[in-house]
Amino acid sequence: MQTNQAGIDLVKSFEGLRLTAYKDIGGVLTVGYGHTGKDVYKGQIISKEKAEALLRQDIKRFELAVEELLDNAPTTQNQFAAMVSLAYNVGPGNFEKSSVLRHHKRGNYVSAAASFMLWVNAGKLKNVAGLVRRRL
Questions:
Q1: What beta strand segments (E) does 1-136 contain?
Q2: Which residues have a Cβ under 8 Å from the Cβ of 136 and sit 6 or more positions away?
Q3: Neighbours of 89 (CB within 10 A)
Q4: 3-state DSSP helix/strand/coil percent for the chain, to nearest 5?
Q5: Helices and strands (DSSP H and E) totals, the chain
Q6: In contact, 32 and 17? CB cutoff 8 Å
Q7: What is the Cα–Cα distance from 41 to 131, expressed in whole angstroms?
């Protein structure tokens, strides 16, 4: 399954575009549309085209992770996009342990949707406004 354009636009809107590397709220070096990794370094400047390419590359990685974790559970396109967006933000390891995934796989979509609101903290910061907006 692939993330639809609405899902990609959702990630872009919440991550925002930063062409110069910065430390995110958790202190992680980040560039573009929330791209992190060993290839991001202090003072790095990228083009908008590079940011798009990194986003597509990252989305693909998270799609594969989410699809594998779903284990063929019935999933709509929008549900898949929402879960990819969550995994993009919290990482596949955290997504794997999430009640979002657990409830979804059991077919309890109302509880799965409600469980997104459990992911509104960033480290010691509680109820981060941007994360609350992202999960609604």
A1: 18-23, 29-32
A2: 117
A3: 19
A4: 55, 10, 35
A5: 7, 2
A6: yes
A7: 25
What residue type is assigned to position 40 of the chain?
V
Nearest to 33 by CA among 123, 46, 91: 46
Q: What is the three-class DSSP state of 10?
A: helix
Tens-place pLDDT, residues 73-121: 999 999 999 999 889 888 899 999 999 999 999 999 999 998 887 775 5
Convert 31-68 into a string of H (helix), E (strand) and C (coil).
EECCECCCCCCCCCECCHHHHHHHHHHHHHHHHHHHHH
Q: Hey, what amino acid is at 55? A: L
Catalytic residues: 15
What tokens does 78 get?
Answer: 């929008």
